[in-house]
Structure formats: C-alpha cells, structure tokens
Amino acid sequence: MSRRIVVLTGAGISAESGIRTFRAADGLWEDHRPEDVATPEAFEADPALVHRFYNARRAHLSSDGVEPNAAHLALARLEQEYDGDVLIVTQNIDDLHERAGSRNVLHLHGELLKMSCTECAAVRDAWPELGVDSICPGCGVSGRLRPHVVWFGEMPIGLEGILEALEDCSVFAAVGTSGNVYPAAGFVHVAAAAGAQTVELNLEPSEVSFGFAEVRRGPAASEVPRWVDEVLTNQ
Ligand code: BJW
C-alpha cells in the first residue's frame, strides 16, 4: 500500500477562521434555505439573489481577520514533512488551505474566488462582484457568468482522481464535516474498504462517525495540530 494520506475537510475546519458552517443553528443557511441558493434551479429562478449570497461570502473571505487557523497550518506542515503523499480534498470553497501553504488541494465543491461561464465553459478568477448583467471576458456573452461552485445535483469536481487516491491510501482523515452530503460522506467507506486507517476529527459526531476506526472530538484548531504531530512523530 502507498504511503499516502488523504484528508477530507469540511466547513468545520474554517469555523475558527470566522467562516460560518452550513448546518449549525447560526450557520450560513440559517439565513438562506439551501434550495434557494445551492441548486442550479435556484440560480435559474433568481440569479440576482444567488449572486448576492456569493458576492457577500467572497467579500467576507477577503476581509481582514479571515485567515488560515492552526488546523490549516498543521495540514500544510504535514504535506511538507510527511515522507509520502498528502492530498487534501476540501469541500470548502474558501482558499484557506492554499493560503496556509498546502499545494496538493482539490476543491470538490468548487472555489469561491473563481467564476465560470455557462456559454463558453471557461473558468477564470472571479471579480469581487458578479451580477446578472456581467459579461464573460472570453466569449463576450452577458448574463452567463456564475460562481464556480458545485450545487446539489451537479457533478463534484475531480471525483475520479479522488476515488483513485482513496483506493490507494494508507490513512484517511475527515476534519469538520457533518457527513450530510454525498459523495464526500461516502469516502470513508471507500478508504476503509481499501484497508486505510480512518480517523474523524470533529467537534461533534457526524452522520458517518460509525464508519471511522477512530474518532477525536474537539475543535479543529487544537485536534488537527495534535494529530499531525503524532503522524509525523510515528512515521
Ligand atoms: C467543527 C468545528 C470546529 C464545527 N472544529 N469541527 C441520497 C443519497 C446519496 C446522495 C444523494 C441522495 N439524495 C441526493 C443525493 C446527492 C446530493 C446529496 O448529498 N444530498 C444530500 C442532501 C443527501 N449530492 C449532490 O447532489 C452532489 N452531487 C452529486 O451527487 O452528483 C451526482 C453523482 C456523484 C457521484 C457519483 C454519481 C453521481 C453535489 C453536492 C454539492 C454540495 N454543495 C454544497 C454548496 C457548495 C457551494 C457553497 O459553499 O455554497 O457544498 S452544499 C454544502 O454542504 C457545501 C458543503 O461543502 C457541503 C458539506 O457541508 P459540511 O462541510 O459538512 O458542513 P456542515 O455545516 O454540514 O458541517 C460542519 C461540521 O463541522 C459539523 O459536523 C460540525 O460539528 C463541525 N464543526 N465547528 C471541528 N471548530
């Protein structure tokens, strides 16, 4: 088996950086019903609302005080110091792993700082504000730009490569994800079936905790550095 660690991250890893999770009582979707903003149908029905939601999140991500926390930094250190491969598969659309120094990062659900064009399919860095009249700089068509994110019913990004990595990893860790959303929630089963050690790091039990050989409870900014230290010490 390869010396490969796959780390799946979710909204919980960015909570201590000041980015709200989705499903907490005070979460992002407290103010917005998921079906109002996180489906292609919602975007078609009310693109202005969906653009406002993502424009606000983009502005927040770029605001002072939103920085990688100790969990992001520890995963970057893991990639630098582990004698093997480290792949971060994040469901998060923020760029905090990259800002922490991680290089091998796949954004399963897209990236907030990118936009795509439904006319010409080009993906580019997003402007701070997108709107219903925005014009694609590639094809020149108006009203076809959208946030480069994966909504319910859409195909996650990079799934084939992720499944290959899961089928050939020695360790699988999931950090700060509730296990509500597939296919990510099923990754632990793929890794476990392939013989990987599995560990969940989360403040609370997730919907798929039962699938992990080990669970560690606590805030990511404390638990992840502790786990990374152990992995590097025992490698
Ligand atoms: C802390 C912490 C701290 C807090 N420290 N921890 C029935 C069965 C199986 C699948 C389906 C089904 N019915 C429908 C589906 C498919 C559907 C799905 O899963 N639906 C469910 C509702 C059941 N999935 C899809 O449609 C996906 N596509 C798809 O399936 O394509 C077809 C296909 C794929 C593969 C094979 C064949 C076909 C697409 C899903 C797209 C999800 N998109 C979103 C929005 C992205 C853009 C945006 O950000 O706005 O992605 S939804 C939202 O949920 C977002 C997140 O990435 C995702 C996961 O949320 P996450 O990260 O887990 O956050 P929370 O808030 O739920 O949890 C936070 C956790 O952190 C909690 O556990 C806390 O305890 C913890 N925490 N503070 C540590 N300090």
Largest sheet: 6 strands, parallel
Give the N-to-C terminal Cα separation: 15 Å
How do the SSEs run, as a string of H and E? Answer: EHHHHHEHEEEEHEHEEH
Low-confidence stretches: none
Count the strands? Answer: 9
Question: How is the largest sheet built, in terms of strand order?
Answer: 3-2-1-7-8-9
List keywords for this structure.
235 residues, alpha/beta, 6-stranded parallel β-sheet, 9 strands, 32% helix, 20% strand
Q: How would you describe what is shown here?
A:
- This protein is globular.
- Helix 5 runs parallel beside helix 9.
- It is built from nine helices and nine strands.
- The two termini are 15 Å apart.
- It is an alpha/beta fold and 235 residues long.
- A six-stranded parallel beta sheet has the order 3-2-1-7-8-9, sandwiched between helices. A three-stranded antiparallel beta sheet has the order 5-4-6.
Structure summary:
The chain has helices at 11-15, 34-37, 40-45, 47-61, 70-81, 96-100, 159-166, 187-193, 220-233; strands spanning 4-9, 85-90, 105-107, 110-117, 123-125, 145-149, 171-175, 197-202, 214-217.
Give the helix/strand layout:
Blueprint: E1 4-9, H1 11-15, H2 34-37, H3 40-45, H4 47-61, H5 70-81, E2 85-90, H6 96-100, E3 105-107, E4 110-117, E5 123-125, E6 145-149, H7 159-166, E7 171-175, H8 187-193, E8 197-202, E9 214-217, H9 220-233
Parallel strand pairs: 1-2, 1-7, 2-3, 7-8, 8-9
Antiparallel strand pairs: 4-5, 4-6
Helix pairs in contact: 5-9
The chain binds ligand BJW.
Ligand BJW is lined by residues 10-12, 15-16, 21-23, 27, 38, 91, 93, 109, 149-156, 159, 176-178, 180-183, 202-204, 206, 219-220.
